Amino acid sequence: MSLQNTSTSKDTGLLLNVEDKPSFFMTLILAAQHLLAALGGIIAVPLVVGNVLELPATDTIILVNASLLISGVVTFVQSKGIGPVGIRLPSVMGTSFTFVAAALAIGFSEAGVAGILGSSLVGSIVMIAGAYLMPYIRKYFPPVVTGCVVMSIGLSLISVAVDWFAGGQKTDPNYASTSTLAMAAFVLIVVILLVQWGKGIFSAAAIFFAMLVGYIVALFFGLVDFTDVKEAQVFAVPTPFHFGLAFPISGIIGMSIAYLVTIVESNGNFLAIGQATNTKVTGEHVKRGVLCDGLGSALAACFSTLPFSSFAQNIGIISITRVASRYVVMWTGILLFLAGLFPVFGALIVSIPAPVLGGAGVMMFAMIIVGGIQMLDRVTRSRRNGLIIAISLGACLAVTLRPELFNHLPGWTKEIFSSGITTGSLFAIILDRILPADKEYTETENLENH
Predict the structure, then answer these.
(1) Which residues does residue 310 pair with via DSSP β-bridges, in sequence order?
(2) Which tens digits make up the pLDDT trace of 49-59?
(3) What is the C-alpha separation between 433 and 410, in angstroms, rounded?
(4) Mapping DSSP to helix (H, G, I), strand (E, B) and coil, where does residue 6 land?
(5) SS3 for 85?
(6) What tens digit of pLDDT does each residue of 184-233 get?
(7) What's residue 445's pLDDT?
(8) Residue 117 burial (CB count, 10 A)
(9) How far apart are CA 302 and CA 358, in angstroms?
(10) Distance (Å, rounded) from C-alpha 177 to C-alpha 188?
(11) What dihedral angle (degrees, nearest 10) is formed by the CA atoms of 392, 48, 113, 267?
């Protein structure tokens, strides 16, 4: 089947470029693989918050449905662009774990869920205002910093993919069992075969078909749990201001800090999307993208769910399949919107076993690391740049592997450094500003001196 590419792959190395429009049938399949990759992450945050706060099941369902519905709206706007809002690149949006710590702290206070949503609504002003500063902030992201940020994204996500690969959580009795690893490895092999030797739609939608084959095999071996599907509502419409709004000062401060962290992470994700789509991401691009994040998060608070940011796992899909069409991701937004209206559809996607996700996830996240390596390969080799790369990536891995590292530090410190992406990015930015440029020596210069 033809991909109907409007520009030659020789120009960019992509099967579909950003402005290419595949056929409707192919668009749906390509959009579905983005949906499969993102859905688990989108519903994970409301599920975690709902379960930890011990909300009634009906309230948790409201959080989940609203997350899917608003994710669809914000994903569509981010990819299509409406006026000054939206980066106009293939960016899937979803609820962010960056806000979980602040949300739980507020939720356990007297303000409850209303305090979480009110603080999120007021805090979104930080992100909306920050969007207009992005053209000026871009000077803090030269190639060496950008490469470190993109690599930090991939390194931070690998541990998630490994847990999926092994079957979920370490507490699971079947974690890393032989059958679990075999299932994940089978899916990974199918992805490799389709990417390397698949033609047309089978190469472009390699993630989708690999997960579909893995799901069918899991069904055959009785590894799919349909409990959530049976209990899910067929149709539901999220209600605006279901929990009400409250505005605790401490909660607003905590959420505002989380939004500042998200600005850094979103900037890194947008740069990674630029790398994957062969698009030069300018300050104006990032401004429109961050503005969409902020306005989308404000909308999410009004519709009774948690704030949003761009999803890094979907960048990996673009890198693997070489499909960069923003129209595909616009349709992913439409599918997410429908999933919010039909919870049973979302429950069916969530029934995909963790090893099936893991087989594809390891490849997706590793491809983001490859993107970062390619960016750093174009950076001048010098002691200064070597220090920036080593320390920032080391800091990223330290927080990713040992998140309890900052347990005894003040709460605001943990809020900022709880993410390996943010930690690695901040170290790269700070070091790039303070290390003197006049002491750089390239490898060539050093060899000539000797």
Answers:
(1) 93
(2) 988 898 887 78
(3) 26
(4) coil
(5) strand
(6) 999 999 999 999 999 888 999 999 999 999 999 999 999 898 988 888 88
(7) 45
(8) 31
(9) 34
(10) 17
(11) 30
| Type and span of the H or E element at 358 | helix 354-376
Burial 136-154, CB ≥16 within 10 A → b, else e? ebbeebeebbbbbbbbbbb
Which of 309, 425, 310, 312 has the alpha carbon at shortest distance from 367? Answer: 312
Domain ranges of the chain: 24-434
Tens digit of each residue's pLDDT (9 = 90 or more) over 111-142: 999 999 999 999 999 999 999 988 887 788 89
Q: Look up tokens 């030069």; give the residue.
A: 280
| pLDDT band, very low/low/confident/very high, at 3 (cuts 50, 70, 90) | low
Quote the radius of gyration of the chain (alpha carbons, Å): 21
Which residue has 């070091």 as its token pair? 431
Checking if the pLDDT of 447 tops 50, the result is: no
Q: Give me the mean pLDDT over the 141-148 stretch.
A: 91
- Within 13 Å and on the Cβ side, how many CA atoms surround 150? 29
- The alpha carbon of 439 is separated from its chain's Cα centroid by a whole number of angstroms, namely 37
- Tokens representing 310 are 């761009």
Give the Cβ contact number of residue 247 at 10 Å.
14
Q: Which residues pair with 382 in a beta bridge?
A: 442
pLDDT at residue number 437: 77
Q: What is the per-residue DSSP string for 91-149?
A: --EEE-GGGHHHHHHHHTSTTHHHHHHHHHHHHHHHHHHHHTTHHHHGGG--HHHHHHH
Helix or strand holding residue 217 (H, E): helix 206-220
Query: What's the pTM value of the predicted model, to 2 decimals?
Result: 0.83
How many CB atoms neighbour CB 192 within 10 A? 16
How far, in Å, are 103, 113, 401 from residue 404 at the CA level?
Answer: 19, 26, 9
DSSP 310: E
Angle at the Cα of 215 from the Cα atoms of 209 and 217, rounded to 5 degrees: 105
Provide the 8-state DSSP code for 170: T
Average per-residue pLDDT for the chain? 88
CA distance 161 to 399: 17
